[in-house]
Amino acid sequence: MSQSRVMMEVGNDGVAVITISNPPVNALAIPIIDGLKEKFAEATRRNDVKAIVLTGKGGRFSGGFDINVFQKVHGTGDISIMPDVSAELVTNAVEDCKKPVVAAVEGLALGGGLEFALGCHARIAAPRAQLGLPELSLGVIPGFGGTQRLPRLVGLSKAIEMMLSSKPIMSEEGKKLGLIDALVPSEDLLKVSRAWALDIAERHKPWLRSLHRTDKLGSLSEAREVLRIARQQAKKTTPNLPQHQICLDVIEEGIIHGGYSGVLKEAKVFKEIVLSDTARGLVHVFLSKRATSKVPNVTDVGLKPRQVKKVAIIGGGLMGSGIATALIMNNIFVVLKEVNSEYLQKGIKTIEENVRGLAARGKLTKDRAEKAISMLKGVLDYAEFKDVDMVIEAVIENVSLKQNIFSEIEKACPPHCILATNTSTIDLNLIGEKIKSEDRVIGAHFFSPAHLMPLLEIVRTKKTSPQTILDLMTVGKVIKKVPVVVGNCTGFAVNRTFFPYAQGAHLLVNLGVDAFRIDRVISNFGLPMGPFQLQDLAGYGVAMAVGKEYEKAFSDRVFKSPLVGLLDKNGRNGKNNGKGFYIYEKGSKPKPDPSVLPIIEESRRLSNIMPAGKPISVTDKEILEMVLFPVVNEACRVLNEGIVVRASDLDIASVLGMSFPSYRGGIVFWADMVGAKHVYTSLKKWSEMYGVFYKASTFLEERAIKGIPLSAPATAAATSKSRM
Ligand SMILES: C[C@H](O)CC(=O)SCCNC(=O)CCNC(=O)[C@H](O)C(C)(C)COP(=O)(O)OP(=O)(O)OC[C@H]1O[C@@H](n2cnc3c(N)ncnc32)[C@H](O)[C@@H]1OP(=O)(O)O
Question: Fewer CB in 10 Å around end: N or C, the chain?
Answer without folding.
Answer: N
